[in-house]
Amino acid sequence: MALSQNAFAATVFSDNFEDGTADGWSKSGGTWTVVTDGTKALQQSNTGTDNAREFAGSTSWTAYTVTARVKPLSFGSNGHVSLLARSTGATVYYRLSLRPGNSVQLQAVNGSSVAVLGSVTRTVATGTWYTLGIEANGSTIRGLVDGTVIASATSTAIANGRIGLQTSYSSGDFDDITVTTGGTTTPTTPAPSATTSPRPSASPSAPGSPSPTVSPAPTGWPTPSGNAPVDNGTIAVSGVFDGGMKRYCCIGDGGQGESQDPVFELAPGATIKNVILGAPAGDGIHCLGNCTIENVWWEDVGEDAATFLGGTNYYVIGGGARAASDKIFQHNGPGTLHISGFYAENFGKLYRACGNCSSSYQRHVVIDNVRVKSGDVIAGININWGDTARFSRITVIGDSSHSTVICDKFNGVPKGSEPTHVGSGADGVNCFYSAGDISWQ
Questions:
Q1: Which CATH class, in words, describes the domain spanning 11-190?
Q2: Is pLDDT above 70 for 212?
Q3: CA-based, 20 to 30 A from 370: which of 10, 76, 83, 438?
């Protein structure tokens, strides 16, 4: 069945500060430094200032969602630690604030005028990470905490603007900031000024423009436009490779042998898109650094569909894979893998953070808008190394018994040993999701 793509979304900005800098951000007040808090994070430490802010992005951005991991470290009286959206100036923006007294507020701020659009009473503890999100789509503004909508309002006060981070008489850490579009209006990242170098991790792919993803995740399978025999071994990719939806085949024996070559090897910053991998596909795709895999399909996964070897951010956007007796995505290097708009069928694990590689890292995965069918585990991580897995808009098809494991937890071990399984399920520490994030069909 041919695949139809009707709506598009894109990740247009991301930053996890793993390069040790806050390049691409504009400071206004406060004391901001990149620190190590599990992973690298941006910290505001001056509790004596009422208005410490960092801004990024473009004032022309309109319809988008911004998310960030936020950890309040201390609260002053009536202080807050906040995420900002649609900022057109230093004091004009929508704000989602963690506040003392177990309060979260979604606000429209215009100078000294602060309109509360919605609020909720929930636990807000210092020293705890929360995932904040603001969805701005036309006049609809929504605030989310850990994937749950805590406020939704109609507001025409601010139509466009940048993203931002803020504290007031408080201190906090900020990490894993991501901006995605909603579909009809695509923000564009502004060109750097002559005196500012673009930050490599502030874009999902380099070179190349932001990549679209299918929304909702696909349910069908694409028809190849033709065949492209792989006659000369692994295809090296730098820059952008567009396969035109041809079927690329064949390498390897279709088994689980660890020594099989990949069909494609992506240089750091490379993008591969519109490719179908036929069987046997060897070890699929290797990403040597940051990479984007867009609308790529595996008809029969051999050893692994893709392996991520070294970088800070990797993106799998759209596409699908089936017939993986073990893993689909293998995460060997450091950093964060973002999987969105993906379809997986008949598999062991959609994602596995390596539990016994020669080098051990703290690894993270963000899985959003994904459909799975006949799978055992969606993500397996190593909690003793501080791995995290975050899930939203997950649809599990044909599993009335809810037997599919969403998040499996292991203790990683040195190479040559086998990781120990230590549990499964959401815990707010390593595995992040709520019942509303998973749909069982």
A1: mainly beta
A2: no
A3: 83
